[in-house]
Amino acid sequence: MRMATKIYAALLRGVNVGGGRKVPMARLRTLLEELGHGGVQTYLQSGNAVFTTDRGDEDSLAAELGAALEEEFGFGVELLVRDGAYLRAVVDRCPFPAAGLEGRQLHVTYFSEPVDPGRYAALDRAAYLPEEFRLGDRALYLYAPDGLGRSKLADALSRPALTRGTVATSRNWNTVTKLAELTGGDHR
């Protein structure tokens, strides 16, 4: 029995930045189509793809695409797949006043599993003010008023002890909201 067709976004981690690990978006679109997915489109060059399918779940779709990428490019690519409803929920649950911020000031890190608040308990939040973060279910919201490139808190949050054993990939608020819109998770 086939599932109903759903719209998903694939979020690739660490591609097309710097000199290596190039994944051309045209080839990513073709790979998704070759895997039998429809409605494929990419957003920006940083590894965001939207597609429809009537089979699998987030984890199996991520594993399938990850294997295809490794076979095609000869290197592993960590990635997450999230459906439109989840992406909309991330937007709706934002604990910061997103409408009053620039997209470069607010970021979401998506995780492959639920966030364990205990991992962040020892972090001295006051030492990083005015930067702040809040935890969601499988997401972390980061307010960095001077942008991610200058954020000391972003560096602290990406330490291996905090992310060990999980796939984590970040997007700025403009991309977060655009992916929610492209996956049909934007019902406003």
Walk me through what this model shows.
It comes from Streptomyces longispororuber. The chain is of the alpha+beta class. The chain folds into two domains: about 5-85, Alpha-Beta Plaits (2-Layer Sandwich); about 95-175, Alpha-Beta Plaits (2-Layer Sandwich). It contains six helices and eight strands, in the order βαββαβαβββααβα. It has helices at about 25-35, 60-75, 85-90, 150-155, 160-165, 175-180, and strands at about 5-10, 40-45, 50-55, 80-85, 105-110, 130-135, 140-145, 170. Strands 2-3-1-4 form a four-stranded antiparallel sheet, sandwiched between helices. Strands 6-7-5-8 form a four-stranded antiparallel sheet. A hairpin with a 3-residue loop joins β6 (about 130-135) and β7. It is globular. The model has no long low-confidence stretch (mean pLDDT about 90).
Give me the CATH architecture of the largest domain, please. Answer: 2-Layer Sandwich
Order of the strands making up the biggest sheet: 2-3-1-4
Radius of gyration: 17 Å
Extract low-pLDDT stretches: none
**Strand share of the residues?**
15-25%
Global morphology = globular
| Count of discrete domains | 2
Report the total helices.
6
Query: And the CATH topology of the largest domain?
Result: Alpha-Beta Plaits
Count of individual beta strands: 8
The CATH superfamily label of the largest domain reads SP0830-like domains
Protein name: DUF1697 domain-containing protein
Organism: Streptomyces longispororuber
Pfam family, one: DUF1697
